[in-house]
């Protein structure tokens, strides 16, 4: 029987994806300590999650008013630690949980990314994943020494080269290149380690790579592009795709469309898993969950939404009045997460929404309270999505840490297991085992269409 995949959506920061989460009375505040993240890791592994995954940005939200003071004052994702380092702390207290992190193709170098994640894969016995992002605002550009952000499609063109370099380096060592024979004095077969010698429009990298292959071959590749260009990138490269579908009907349509794109790239659609974002608010009973949801609904502030919108859309929302419509030029010039802009237009029915419309129509900074209930009610909704063919699994976000994850594992996971929708236990040791993906073999990452180009 087909079973769903579960991903814990994490941030190496002072709050979850929801800036208001740090204000929740049940949220831990020792987020600068390893044990904060290690407790989350233990909870997710106890719930047999496929992986815990870190979203990341290279700047704090400071686009609103071109100032960071409000960010610090309100705790709006202002603490951002290196997620790969945090993952090593989580790896140390787990045996099976997959470990995923974001790293930008716009500002990092591919050799560095390839080495960091392949090392994490070895140190965790084959549990690592890399989330490929292109970065999205001028704050990140400024922190990384650039005057402004690259244009949207150019970022993806560079990302295509970047991932070719990373995957090419991961293929640099054959599986049996290491010998390590003290008696003969032979450490490895030099003919089984290959230079890359890549030269592209944006990037070049020579090699040979310095990290051998891991138990799963190389890390799983994650992507979450939502624009047309982003979806084409995912179809070509990704093995696990994060989405934010808004209802089962449209979700199934988008899911089917994306799987067709994967097939058109000459890839097996069953080897590309799609997980949609949700924020379950759960408890032992529906009444208890509704009480929890009522508290969570009171936590977000207007400044949270304004700051996070400015960051995500790379536009200073302080430059406009609350009820001042965006001009055609301003709407067309948005270069960040364009899917948010498009969703606001759709939800409000306005071609030129106001700042207030963006707050309401985007829901930015505010959990969607559309999955609230006891074990049965939440499991019913997840089953509807999964059995209805709208996804392969779910990215579980929390409105309080660690209780949001603990409640889900305590109340919902057993119900999903009872229905046969989710594993009773891990059946393998690597992340690819959990996701039902084959071991990565050298050269397998090249889609048939690409190989023919």
Automatic annotation (TrEMBL):
- Keyword Nucleotidyltransferase assigned to the entry: answer is yes
Query: What family classification does the UniProt entry report for this protein?
Result: Belongs to the NtaA/SnaA/DszA monooxygenase family.
Q: Which GO terms describe its molecular function?
A: nucleotidyltransferase activity; oxidoreductase activity
Q: Name the Gene3D superfamilies on file.
A: Luciferase-like domain
Report keywords, A-Z: Flavoprotein, FMN, Monooxygenase, Nucleotidyltransferase, Oxidoreductase, Transferase
Q: Where is the Luciferase-like domain?
A: 61-386
Q: What is the top-level taxon of the source organism?
A: Bacteria
Looking up InterPro entries in the UniProt record yields: Diverse_substr_monoxygenases (IPR051260), Luciferase-like_dom (IPR011251), Luciferase-like_sf (IPR036661), NTA_MOA (IPR016215)
Q: Which EC numbers characterise this protein's activity in its record?
A: 1.-.-.-
Alphabetized SUPFAM superfamilies for the sequence: Bacterial luciferase-like
Q: Which Pfam families match?
A: Bac_luciferase (PF00296)
Q: What is this protein called?
A: LLM class flavin-dependent oxidoreductase
């Amino acid at each position: 029987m087909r079973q769903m995949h579960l991903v814990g959506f994490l941030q190496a920061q002072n709050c979850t994806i929801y800036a208001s989460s740090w204000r929740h009375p049940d949220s831990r505040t020792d987020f600068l300590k390893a044990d904060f993240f290690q407790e989350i890791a233990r909870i997710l592994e106890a719930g047999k999650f496929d992986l815990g995954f870190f979203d990341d940005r290279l700047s704090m939200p400071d686009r609103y008013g071109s100032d960071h003071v409000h960010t610090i004052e309100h705790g709006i994702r202002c603490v951002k630690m290196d997620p790969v380092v945090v993952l090593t702390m989580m790896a140390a207290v787990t045996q099976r949980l997959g470990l995923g992190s974001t790293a930008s193709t716009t500002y990092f170098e591919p050799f560095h990314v390839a080495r960091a994640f392949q090392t994490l894969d070895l140190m965790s016995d084959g549990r690592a994943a890399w989330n490929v992002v292109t970065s999205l605002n001028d704050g990140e550009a400024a922190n990384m020494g650039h005057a402004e952000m690259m244009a949207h499609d150019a970022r993806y063109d560079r990302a295509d080269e970047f991932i070719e370099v990373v995957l090419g380096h991961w293929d640099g060592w054959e599986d049996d290149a290491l010998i390590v024979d003290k008696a003969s004095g032979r450490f490895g077969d030099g003919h089984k380690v290959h230079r890359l010698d890549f030269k592209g429009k944006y990037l070049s990298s020579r090699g040979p790579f310095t990290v051998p292959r891991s138990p799963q071959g190389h890390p799983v590749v994650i992507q979450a592009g939502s624009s047309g260009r982003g979806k084409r990138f995912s179809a070509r490269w990704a093995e696990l795709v994060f989405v934010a579908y808004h209802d089962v009907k449209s979700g199934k349509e988008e899911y089917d469309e994306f799987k067709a794109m994967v097939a058109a790239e000459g890839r097996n659609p069953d080897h590309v898993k799609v997980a949609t974002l949700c924020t379950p608010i759960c408890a032992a009973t529906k009444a208890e969950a509704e009480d929890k949801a009522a508290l969570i609904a009171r936590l977000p502030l207007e400044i949270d939404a304004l700051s996070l919108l400015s960051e995500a859309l790379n536009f200073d929302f302080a430059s406009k009045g609350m009820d001042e419509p965006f001009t055609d030029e301003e709407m067309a010039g948005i270069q960040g997460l364009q899917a948010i802009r498009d969703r606001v237009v759709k939800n409000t029915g306005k071609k030129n929404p106001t700042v207030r419309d963006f707050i309401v129509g985007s829901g930015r900074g505010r959990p969607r309270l559309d999955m609230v209930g006891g074990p049965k009610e939440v499991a019913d909704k997840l089953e509807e999505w999964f059995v209805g063919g709208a996804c392969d699994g779910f990215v579980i976000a929390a409105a309080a840490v660690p209780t949001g994850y603990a409640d889900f594992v305590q109340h919902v996971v057993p119900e999903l297991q009872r229905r046969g929708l989710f594993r009773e236990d891990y059946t393998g040791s690597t992340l690819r085992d959990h996701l039902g993906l084959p071991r990565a073999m050298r050269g397998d990452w090249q889609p048939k269409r690409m190989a023919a180009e």
